[in-house]
Design goal:
Chains A, B, C, D, E, F, G: It comes from Pontibacter ummariensis. Chains A, B, C, D, E, F, G: This is Co-chaperonin GroES. Chains A, B, C, D, E, F, G: Heptamer of 7 subunits arranged in a ring. Interacts with the chaperonin GroEL. The structure is a homoheptamer of 96-residue chains. Chain A is built from no helices and 9 strands. By secondary structure, chain A is an all-beta fold. Chain A has one domain: Roll (10 Kd Chaperonin, Protein Cpn10, Chain O). In chain A, strand 7 and strand 8 form a beta hairpin. Strand 9 of chain F pairs antiparallel with strand 1 of chain G.
Chain lengths: 96, 96, 96, 96, 96, 96, 96
């Protein structure tokens, strides 16, 4: 899964997983959980943030990575009927 | 589309897209959405911000780029009857 | 237009434009606008801010530049009956 | 004990110790304590944070370390029925 | 005018001008003005602040400079019956 | 006096002195004092904090140092019936 | 006057001057003054703060210096019946 939008700097676009899905690692995140992190797939990444030295700091996640992110991370966008989240890479907690 | 105003440092000027437009990527952002990002075209860019090391950090967007930006980003200016937004490049979320 | 006051560091002095003026670019900023940026002419500039490395970071604006700045930017001073604003260069949004 | 989730940057995953456990050092943390730190075992670590110079700052804790952490540190995740905490390495106070 | 007190780091001591004085530049600052900057003469300067790189950042003002500063800048001290203000150099807006 | 717990980064573990003790320097800190600093002995130190340049900044205190620290510094831990405080080295005011 | 306590990093210990004292510079600070700076003598200094580059930034004040400091600067300590203040060097405004 990938989309043609290019996030800027250290931003990534994530396709949220359906609530009932189960990952290879067997993570189940009950939707009743308060403040529990969410799961999704990275569908686009930015080129990275520039450091104060002008060096490009490349993102550590890749398109296709299954990731966990905080419940309130990111901004919703909608492309051809599908909902995505655009967030900073630092909003991503872990790769599954 | 371009205008003769020169934004300073890391600022860019964006011409907001009409609400009913549809991009090549097919993004439709319903105007009823709360806090949803907005879409527009970059019409002028600054030379970039100076880092603490004195290096010029050039903007990653270019004049003509179709971009997404946060709903409350930027300051409105009006040139020859047209409305634009002047914002920092970091207010831009993605290039379409 | 220029005045004999020397702003310190990254500060500049701006002579606000009369409300009914019209620039070459044709910008008209109706005075009823809420939070709209203001227009004026730079009449004095500081030598620039020192970076953490001790390097002088020269201002990007010059005396004579027509500029846009935020509605609440700067501090009013009055020289020989004329009102000016002294502000940081970062309060300037764009050069017209 | 280890799990297949990869924390990002300077994050680590900790398996909280059962409340009644006693470490080799003999630490007992009564569960009535207010604001007392908690104890657990590191089960996964990130690759480290990038410094502003672009250098990778490796974590000082290792998988298997018994650690103390603040009572409200981290975000709960649940993997195959087990509860873990994902937190920044800086939330860890000490290695037992 | 100079005094024997040595301000530390990036601090300067200023002798406030009498309210009715008029400078060479002809600045008159009516004392009814709200938040208007004040005028005075620099009577002592510190050696400068050390940057994070350990470089000494020398002050740009000199003893004898007539300066403008914010209305609430600095701390009052009193030497042999005279009132002075001790402030950071960054509180000084301009040299007259 | 020393314990087998390893504080992380710039943290140290301090054994608080009994309220009635008197140091070689003769400091007496009456327990009625409000906001007065506390006294104790360093029993464990971390390896130091990594600077942004990746350099290890070693702690200036050593195990065995008698130190003063702010009244509300640190987090209480309890090891084999003894109470300690784990705090950042910057919470330590002075070595006695 | 000097005491055997070693302040840490960029801290200094100051012996406050008696309220009625008069310095060589003739400063008199009436004790009715609100927010006026205080005067005292430096009796101990730390080795200095480490910069982000790991360089030791030595204090600019010396033991024996008569200094001005803000009214609410520092923390009170009491050594052999005498009261002192332990503060950061940046709390010191000037050397008399």
């Amino acid at each position: 899964m990938s989309i043609s939008i290019k996030p800027l700097a250290d931003r990534v676009i994530v396709a949220p997983a359906a609530a009932e899905e189960k990952t290879k690692s067997g993570i189940i995140i009950p939707d009743t959980a308060k403040e529990k992190p969410q799961r999704g797939e990275v569908v686009a990444i930015g080129e990275g943030k520039l450091s104060e030295q002008g060096a490009l700091m490349k993102p550590q996640v890749q398109v296709g990575d299954q990731v966990l992110y905080g419940k309130y991370a990111g901004t919703e966008i909608s492309v051809e009927g599908n909902d995505y989240l655009i967030m900073r890479e630092s909003d991503i907690l872990a790769i599954l």
